[in-house]
Design brief:
18% strand
Length: 132
């Protein structure tokens, strides 16, 4: 396909800090991706609805509140229920190393912790999206 990769950048839950998500979103945009930013305090249902409506290739979630073990898997589950099983889901933020294997088992393709260069995230998305 010749269209740019479309990424939904989302901040699930009550996390009110979005500087990191905005930095990543800008880097994605600068790399030629189309970025849709949902804003703060989104429910999993709102994130999934936006992802389906915007026909995105990837959902990139950022969380700092500690609710990642609940919210990230819920987004994946809802995406599958709504026909978005081909949408790549990645996450980032302050996530303990010991939680990462469980998140991956729940369907999160990759977790990017603080200090990860934005290029690493962009490369992962570019290499792992599923396009029809």
């Amino acid at each position: 396909m010749n269209r740019p990769i479309r990424v939904l950048v989302a901040k699930p839950g009550l996390d009110g800090h979005d500087r990191g998500a905005k930095v990543v979103a800008r880097a994605m945009r600068d790399a030629g991706m189309e970025v849709i930013y949902t804003g703060l305090r989104q429910t999993p249902e709102q994130i999934v609805e936006a992802a389906i409506q915007e026909d995105v290739d990837c959902v990139s979630m950022s969380i700092l509140s500690g609710a990642h073990n609940h919210l990230f898997p819920k987004v994946v589950k809802l995406l599958r229920e709504k026909g978005g099983e081909d949408i790549l889901v990645v996450g980032g933020g302050v996530i303990p190393e010991e939680d990462i294997p469980g998140l991956k088992e729940a369907g999160i393709a990759e977790i990017f912790t603080p200090g990860t260069p934005t290029g690493v995230t962009i490369d992962f998305i570019t290499k792992n999206i599923k396009r029809n």
